[in-house]
Amino acid sequence: MPATDMSQLVSLCQRRGFIFQSAEIYGGMKGLYDFGPLGVELKNNIKASWWRSMVHERDDVEGLDSAIIGPAVTFKQSGHADTFNDPLTECKKCKARMRTDKMADPTVCESCGSKELMAPRAFNMMFKMQYGPTEDSSSVAYLRPETAQHIFMNFKNVLDTTNRRPPFGIAQIGKAYRNEIIARNFIFRVREFEQMELEFFVVPGEDEKWHEYWLEERLKWWESIGVPRSKIKINDVPKADLAHYSKRTFDLEYEYPHGHDEVEGIANRTDYDLGNHSKNQSELNLTAKVHPNTASNTKLTAQTLEGKHYVPFVIEPSAGVERCMLAVMNEAYHEEPLPAKEGQAPDAQSETRIVLKLKPFLAPIKAAVIPLARNKPELMALATQTKATLQKLGLGRILLETSGNVGKAYRKHDEVGTPLCVTVDFQSLEDGTVTIRHRDTMQQERLSLAELPAYLQGFYRVGG
Ligand code: ATP
């Protein structure tokens, strides 16, 4: 059973150090979160899995890591300056601000119930900034609202340096910023987040085929990280709701504790972006003197085998790391009755255990090495050495767990999703064997220290 309420996940994330409210010591900033010791590991593992599947395991995708700030002209040409708006209303009575398209009843204030609301106005969601020491219109820049535009701006650089020809893609994982009217549902809707985006360039006319292809590929990836298809609703977005650049979009809506909501969008962006970034001064009716740097001087085109230039169409699967993390944690979250006796000292107060049944390759900690007693130098030395040996295998983080008794350590590692615990006890000092304890089954087996590295390697190879 996944979590039934968001509060279960919020509580686990805070208690165990996955996620903290940003700037908490100063009262916190709404819509901003920091990722703690376990959160950063989980996030990195999610991103690594996406990168493996979208770049390394394919032969038609290149990677990119671009700047986060972009000049105003980028977002003028991409359409974001004019159309990246949400409808904002304000309550005349309590001054609460709301996004009308997300309100159950757009005529009633969500905060105080008043019906005295201002007429909705378009609120642009981009964070504007001044770039460099001069304060004039030429120094206006924006924090990117999606990683995509920098991929488009680098289209020709990648094409020319890799000799690619459509169909091929450019993938990027990185931060994006949106000044959401209301940040809500924990890390679901935030103002700073990370996107995992692929821009896949295709020959016009082949776009619809590739759009269907990427829908299927992406569903397979979600399944591989523990989010089953049965939990994802595919929303073929109605024409009236499409983003300004889209011919057709499939939204993947995961069943979150707060209801079905978008975890990934797969859009057919046509030639909209590459076409707009290719427009020169005269095509935009501008003169270079009056408007310097307001148009590109590069044609973002590909060539057919016959040497004819054309603007490729783009299929874009775009997923948020935070929304992915929330879905993965939600699927993995289980509360289970605890058998009467488990481990050496079961936690007396709890009759249920919380266990995060993450896929092993996503687990923040791959194995916890637990010395049975902390005050025995020989045991500590053997545990420390075991940790160091396992760490060198390159599987991810191995933790030397020295807090609490063994029972408590098992409970803790169940909660944070550690697939294996390795307990070093007095028998280990005598015969060189240790106990391996499995998170999901709670079963234990005895293994020699010499066999341990190969055992872990095998476990993680099979488990992913
Ligand atoms: P929504 O309708 O929920 O605002 P969107 O359709 O504007 O989302 P896209 O522009 O398609 O989102 O962005 C691609 C992905 O980026 C989304 O599927 C989501 O996973 C992520 N994302 C977008 N906005 C946010 C946000 N404010 N907080 C966290 N993730 C986000």
Bound molecules: adenosine-5'-triphosphate
How far is the N terminus from the C terminus?
Answer: 23 Å
Mean pLDDT: 93
Label the overall shape. globular
For the sheet with most strands, the description reads:
7 strands, mixed
Beta-strand fraction estimate: 25-35%
Count of individual helical segments: 13
User: What value does the Rg take, in angstroms?
Assistant: 26 Å
Number of strands: 24
Q: Helical amount among residues, as a percent range?
A: 25-40%
**Adjacency order of strands in the biggest sheet:** 3-10-11-17-14-13-12
Structural class: alpha+beta
Point out poorly predicted stretches. Answer: none
Oligomer: single chain
What does it look like?
With 464 residues, the protein is of the alpha+beta class. Helix content is 29%, strand content 27%. It is built from 13 helices and 24 strands. The strands form 7 sheets. It has a 7-stranded mixed beta sheet. Strand 13 (248-256) and strand 14 (259-270) form a beta hairpin. It starts with 5 loop residues before the first helix and ends with a helix. The model has no long low-confidence stretch (mean pLDDT 93). Adenosine-5'-triphosphate (ATP) is lined by residues 178, 180, 189-190, 193, 195, 262-265, 318-320, 322-323. Adenosine-5'-triphosphate is lined by residues 178, 180, 189-190, 193, 195, 262-265, 318-320, 322-323.
What are its keywords?
single chain; 5-stranded mixed beta sheet; globular; 27% strand; binds adenosine-5'-triphosphate; 464 residues; 7-stranded mixed beta sheet; alpha+beta
